[in-house]
């Protein structure tokens, strides 16, 4: 008999408002990727992304899986409580669960610590057989060869932003402000290029987004520890650590409000008509495409507001 599993890509209201204002919004690929490991002879899969769907609290599931990022951790805990209050089992994983497992395990039945390629299938098999452990820890470096293709067919109503693909894991550097070293196994790994290209060819979307927004005092980084020692962290409310709508630390030579205003000034100037024209004039790619993308970013700035 199949068990019903719900996979949730959570998003708190503040970040959701920001995401919905973005011209070129992109999917969160974690849950569609983990869905590819699930044996559909044993599980009936439901995938929900809070970007455009509501969590179906009224439905019955055997298991709810939630991926937890630091900025939405409190929101994830609230989701988990609602299901656990109905005696529905909850498993949590993701970056925040890897960084602060002792905190996260207080809010779920089971926890996944580290990368999931090995421990996620093991957990699913154990849960199906009613022989599950409370904690699964990645102790072996996953091989990125022959990775399954993310279940993009489960993604609900995303017209042109399904173009997210995993091509590497970890980082070869050790920057003081970044916590990738604490989240992922060593060493830095890449997927075979042919496999990445093959996966891209399966996608209907021609739009891809490359992003890196770790410009924060993230957990377990030297910068975070230094700022904490100097009493320069504004809060440990994880919703501030989103890199988009909040400042989580006190700058040395200005107020936090001034830093945020400077950040917004930079974005406005970078996407001013004068700056856009200058870049497009020098661009070697399609001028019309570049104009549309840059104007889209300019429009999206209206969605970022000062939250002080």
Automatic annotation (TrEMBL):
Write down a Pfam family by its short name.
B12-binding
Name the UniProt key words of this record, in alphabetical order.
Iron, Iron-sulfur, Metal-binding, S-adenosyl-L-methionine
Named cofactor requirement(s): [4Fe-4S] cluster
Outline the extent of the B12-binding domain. Answer: 2-134
The record's annotation in CDD domains points to: radical_SAM_B12_BD (cd02068)
Please give the InterPro entries that the UniProt record associates with this protein: BchE-like (IPR051198), Cobalamin-bd (IPR006158), DUF4070 (IPR025274), rSAM (IPR007197), rSAM_horseshoe (IPR023404), rSAM_sf (IPR058240)
**CC annotations in GO:** cytosol
For this protein, what is any one GO molecular function term?
iron-sulfur cluster binding
* Keyword match Metal-binding: yes
Q: What is this protein called?
A: Radical SAM protein
Organism, as annotated:
Clostridium beijerinckii
């Amino acid at each position: 008999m199949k068990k019903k599993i719900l996979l949730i890509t959570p998003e708190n209201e503040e970040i959701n408002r920001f995401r919905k204002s973005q011209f070129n919004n992109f999917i969160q690929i974690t849950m569609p990727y983990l869905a590819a490991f699930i044996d559909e002879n044993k599980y009936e899969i439901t995938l929900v992304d809070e970007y455009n769907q509501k969590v179906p609290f009224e439905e019955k599931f055997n298991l709810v899986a939630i991926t937890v990022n630091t900025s939405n951790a409190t929101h994830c805990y609230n989701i988990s409580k609602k299901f656990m209050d109905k005696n529905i089992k909850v498993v949590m994983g993701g970056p925040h669960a890897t960084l602060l497992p002792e905190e996260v395990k207080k809010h779920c039945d089971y926890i996944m610590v580290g990368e999931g390629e090995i421990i996620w299938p093991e957990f699913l098999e154990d849960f199906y057989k009613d022989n599950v452990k409370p904690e699964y820890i990645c102790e072996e470096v996953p091989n990125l060869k022959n990775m399954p293709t993310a279940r993009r067919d489960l993604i609900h109503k995303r017209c042109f932003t399904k173009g997210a693909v995993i091509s590497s894991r970890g980082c070869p550097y050790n920057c003081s402000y970044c916590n990738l070293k604490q989240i992922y196994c060593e060493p830095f790994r890449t997927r075979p290029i042919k496999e990445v290209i093959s996966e891209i060819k399966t996608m209907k979307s021609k739009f891809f987004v490359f992003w890196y927004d770790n410009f924060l005092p993230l957990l377990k980084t030297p910068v975070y520890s230094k700022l904490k020692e100097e009493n320069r962290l504004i809060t440990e409310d994880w919703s501030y650590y989103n890199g988009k709508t909040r400042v989580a630390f006190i700058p040395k030579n200005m107020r936090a409000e001034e830093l945020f205003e400077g950040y917004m000034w930079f974005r406005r100037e970078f996407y001013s008509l004068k700056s856009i024209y200058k870049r497009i004039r020098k661009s070697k790619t399609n001028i019309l495409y570049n104009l549309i993308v840059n104007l889209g970013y300019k429009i999206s700035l209206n969605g970022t507001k000062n939250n002080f």
